[in-house]
Amino acid sequence: MSYAIVWFRRDLRLHDHPALHAALAAGHTPVPVYVHSPGDEGAWAAGAASLSWLQRALAALDSQLRALGSRLILRQGSAETVLRELIAECGAVAVYWNRRYEPATQPRDARLKRELRAQGLEVHSYNGALLFEPWQLATQQGGPYKVFTPFWRSALSHWQVPALRPAPKTLPPPPPALPSLPLQQLGLAPALGWDRGFWDVWQPGEAGAHEALDVFVDGALRGYVAGRDRPDQIGTSRLSPHLHFGEIAPWRIVAALENARSAATGAAIDGYIRQLGWRDFAHHLLHHFPATPEHNLNPRFARFRWAAPDPAQLQAWQRGRTGVPIVDAGLRELWHTGWMHNRVRMIVASYLCKHLRVHWSEGARWFWDTLVDADLANNTLGWQWVAGTGADAAPYFRVFNPVTQAQKFDPQGRYIARWVPELAALPVAERFAPWLTPQRLATSAPHYPRQPIVDLAAGRDAALAAYRETGGG
């Protein structure tokens, strides 16, 4: 039987794996390979939290493969070089992979496909990550969408979800002499163990993804429409890191949701699938506007007067020491779990970009390093949306008030009390803006900042003044 390399990347699963299934259908013995190649990622090699997740996801995938009779071959270096070496070592006649869509990886993959085919190898790539690939949908003029609603309308008119494919029951082994690096040699896990708290709330790998989906469908789904904006409740699916690493296919999520559809869940299911649409929209934008991880999509903001970052203020924001409880709660949740509730992501991003007037790329970089679900397309879309500089963005003059946002979405202050426990002794009404009751704050939370690092009204006014200078307002 001939050997075919199956190059695992952001598709760390065995169910619904188009490349693996295609290699098996063609009669090949799959050689499962993962190449750690941060040098191939340009300016956006995975951050520390993502690498920590990857360590455990790769271990889980290798365990799955071994249970079926195979194993995961780990290598490190330039993917193009390593794959050529592997082809020579095992005599592979074909290479299969599921596509990636980042600006640095697309040209590399196209070049590799072209060169390997020129050498006589079969090379096949597939969509293993999205409901719609970035180039599938276009406006009537043939261009990319910049507004989500017409993008989603077009997506629904072309809706066709792939059939589910179970994981193989067995797999033939790769060549026994083919060496693999020890996982620890890739240097993915942090030496100091700062990620210890992550694993109290996360289970990387395909089994963890399926369990998270089951828990969501059986629990939070019914209240998703209102619950998804409540950080004090378990109201979301928490599938984002599993989706990022390809531990579950989005169409498997859709199938599970549709199987649960009823009069009581229909609106929630439509709302959740729409969020999967935003994920596809993010990849659509990144594909068509590959400079956006570093540059504003809206050129008007080239004239915007961002403030020079104050190192002390930026560090206070990063560490959850701004003196604004909902902001601090979100950033401490991020630090301890590698994740932050989406509503709170918007609040902390607005605070940085507007109240502090720090360029959105500073926040994007911090999220990139600290989120386990850090995804270049989603991260870019999210930050440019909040900053007002991107596609279909919230207008810059819409400034989130973090106090009223906390009162609305954390009405009992439970989220604040959990992540800023020094404020838990305050009466609920005082947890949102504790600087307004300075004596009680000094008594109950003597180590919490006495005042926010910037006056909220003054920060808002300065942001709007800078916006007007660009010709807005």
TrEMBL record:
The record marks 306, 360, 383 as: Electron transfer via tryptophanyl radical. It holds the Pfam family FAD_binding_7. Residues 2-131 form the Photolyase/cryptochrome alpha/beta domain. Belongs to the DNA photolyase family. GO terms for biological process: response to light stimulus. It comes from Xanthomonas graminis pv. poae. This is Deoxyribodipyrimidine photo-lyase. InterPro entries: Crypto/Photolyase_FAD-like_sf, Crypto/Photolyase_N_sf, Cryptochr/Photolyase_FAD-bd, Cryptochrome/DNA_photolyase_1, DNA_photolyase_N, Rossmann-like_a/b/a_fold. One of its GO terms (molecular function) is FAD binding.
